[in-house]
Amino acid sequence: xxxxxxxxxxxxxxxxxxxxxxxxxxxxxxxxxxxxxxxxxxxxxxxxxxxxxxxxxxxxxxxxxxxxxxxxxxxxxxxxxxxxxxxxxxxxxxxxxxxxxxxxxxxxxxxxxxxxxxxxxxxxxxxxxxxxxxxxxxxxxxxxxxxxxxxxxxxxxxxxxxxxxxxxxxxxxxxxxxxxxxxxxxxxxxxxxxxxxxxxxxxxxxxxxxxxxxxxxxxxxxxxxxxxxxxxxxxxxxxxxxxxxxxxxxxxxxxxxxxxxxxxxx
Length: 266
What we know:
- The chain is α/β, with parallel strands linked by helices.
- It has a single domain, classed as Carbon-nitrogen hydrolase (Nitrilase/N-carbamoyl-D-aminoacid amidohydrolase), CATH 3.60.110.
- The protein is 21% helix and 30% strand.
- The strands form four sheets. It has a six-stranded mixed beta sheet. The protein has a six-stranded mixed beta sheet with strand order 6-7-8-9-12-13, covered by helices on one side.
- The longest helix is centred in the N-terminal third of the chain and has 13 residues, at 15-27.
């Protein structure tokens, strides 16, 4: 299976341009699965919920979803991408998984970061896994990385690959995702963005360094800190199904959940 990660630099608010640019980049590389950043089509720093309201769109009937699906249909591939979603009066920071036949699944961000709490409604989908070709995919978004429970739940649901659209500004995530791969024995694909956005007194610079990591923590592809980039590698998703850390240790069978009750205590 060939997987690709796209590190973009979107123009805030210009959905048509951002979608066109992304699809052009994806079209330059053949892959079975492409992973794009969080909010790749809108940019990030909305400032107010009202400003976000001008950019949200329904899934999968909105223009961004439809554009991604058309690409998948023409190439026989799948795409994971971050979209600003509208459902009724609610706005969600969403990752969609689409293929040639349309929407396969979507995930709404569980752990909203900083000012996102002013713009978006909390995600309500939970963590699910979908079949994509010979692989099983789980989705998480950006700041979900800091909660190891997110990746662990997806791994317990038999995800081979965790797709991780992101707009990272902190620099801790990329090495942490190596740990998420190792502790769950899964592939992880972190699609980050680059560039800078300024809104009034808020100034954000995004950290780049998108990466693809294997179940042993080896970084198979790594993007630079500042430049746009698309990278593709061949992987064998079945390697993620070997959960033995040593001949005598199975990372899931050796768990002792009776001692983990504090993890789910409010």
